[in-house]
Write a structure and sequence with these properties.
By secondary structure, the protein is of the alpha+beta class. The chain is built from four helices and twelve strands. The chain folds into two domains: 75 residues, Alpha-Beta Plaits; 127 residues, Cytidine Deaminase, domain 2.
Length: 208
């Protein structure tokens, strides 16, 4: 089943729990939720059915009531990562400060798996198309997290001129237990992925 992007935008009391690349995948997800007793809608920007291929650009949304969103995501096996708003803002500002080069850093998570600290680090590649975290800064971040009883939960970096989706180089060597947060053009869009067997699986960012 091909998934495109999780979104959490409210319209009245409705929440999009996942966005699929095809209507058939979205229909399968809706049927799965129905079997769990969760009412869901499939919504696509296809110009009222006149242009069925139009939604390929924007995806097909599976929408549920806001009070069933967490249950729906669990039923669909959608992983999530809780991130404080100030942590997201720190990553955005770091990305903008380093543009047009890729920015990078690490983040720590606490016992509950939520982000507790963002480490804005140096990209020693000084490149707009790749990043390598400064090894000494990496060690310092790890040491700081360890002293506070946290763990390094993942890495973040920016794509100054491309969407926030993993590039081939992003998929190489990433710890499968880590989450990779990517900030797209202008840091306007932020998405997260976990890479398993070289295949990226999206993670919902729950901003708090």
């Amino acid at each position: 089943m091909s998934r495109q992007s999780p979104v959490a935008r409210k319209s009245d009391d409705l929440v999009t729990v996942w966005v699929y690349s095809t209507r058939s995948d979205a229909d399968i997800a809706r049927a799965r939720l129905s079997a769990e007793g969760i009412d869901a809608l499939v919504m696509a920007d296809d110009e009222g059915g006149l242009n069925p291929g139009f939604f390929n650009r924007y995806g097909v949304r599976v929408v549920v009531r806001a009070d069933r969103a967490d249950t729906a995501r669990a039923a669909l096996g959608v992983a999530s990562l809780a991130v404080p708003a100030e942590a997201v803002e720190a990553m955005i500002q770091h990305a903008r400060f380093n543009a047009p080069e890729e920015a990078c850093g690490l983040f720590a998570v606490g016992d509950d798996g939520s982000v507790t600290m963002v480490y804005c680090l140096t990209n020693i590649d000084h490149s707009a198309a790749s990043y390598t975290i400064d090894p000494e800064e990496h060690f310092q971040a790890w040491s700081h997290a360890r002293r506070h009883g946290w763990e390094i939960g993942g890495v973040f970096h920016s794509h100054p001129a491309s969407p926030p989706v993993p590039s081939p180089s992003d998929l190489v060597g990433l710890d499968p237990d880590w989450v990779s947060i990517i900030l797209g053009v202008g840091a306007e869009e932020v998405r997260a992925f976990r890479v398993l067997g070289g295949i990226p699986t999206e993670v919902v960012l729950e901003r708090r």
